[in-house]
Amino acid sequence: MGGVLPPVVSDHMKVILCYGDSNTWGFDPLTQERFSPQVRWTGVLSRQLGEGYQVIEEGLSGRTTVWDDPVEGLHKNGKEYLLPCLESHQPIDLVILMLGTNDLKMRFSVPAADIAASAGVLVAVIQKSAAGIAGAAPRVLLIAPPPVGKLSEFAEMFIDAGAKSRKLSEYYRVVATQYGCDFLNARDFILSSDIDGIHFEADQHHKLGEAVALRVRQILK
């Protein structure tokens, strides 16, 4: 006679892919070098989540949502690398997507609504992929980047970016609702540095990492 089988204990480590720009890469506005892994918000996220989670950093300085950059190179187009990135890291439980700040550059001349819609294009790519568990799609956490701060060296590159950047969160929220993905407004937790107006200082990385960790636990509970 067969006995009762013991419950299956899953040893699956939850995989979280963080897809973003220089603020995911960890650009230090003061030194213009890279923050250490412990300081970057992705490192804080990993530490806060602890065992059972793998946090993958996929940050690239200058990365846009869907735009080819005629100055910095076509490889800055976030859409072009997204699917290969998903497939190389699969199976993925959750993709955290925080892009849009570079779309504010004057060379693209893109309104805030179109930047949010472009982020939505990336959400759709993720949701149509089979990069999740058992060939399903990963969950998506769309993060609206905070407004730009006091621009200095980037002022000419980001002409008129301030007003547009303050509109991003409302449009991103609409896009998240449209695609049925999770949403977090970085502006609720952090500010862009007034050193250069674009990047996050160390204390802001810490705050964002903690906020994202709390949200991730809610999503992947």
Describe this structure in words.
With 221 residues, the chain is an alpha/beta fold. It has helices at residues 22-25, 41-49, 78-89, 112-128, 161-179, 202-219, and strands at residues 14-20, 53-59, 94-98, 139-144, 182-185. It is built from six helices and five strands; from the N terminus they run E-H-H-E-H-E-H-E-H-E-H. It has a five-stranded parallel sheet with strand order 2-1-3-4-5, with helices on both faces. The protein is globular, with a radius of gyration of 18 Å. The termini are far apart.
For this structure, the CATH topology is Rossmann fold
Overall outline:
globular
Number of domains: 1
SSE string? EHHEHEHEHEH
Structural class by SSE content:
alpha/beta
What is the C-alpha radius of gyration, as a whole number of Å?
A: 18 Å
How do the strands and helices of this protein lay out in sequence?
Elements: E1 14-20, H1 22-25, H2 41-49, E2 53-59, H3 78-89, E3 94-98, H4 112-128, E4 139-144, H5 161-179, E5 182-185, H6 202-219
Parallel strand pairs: 1-2, 1-3, 3-4, 4-5
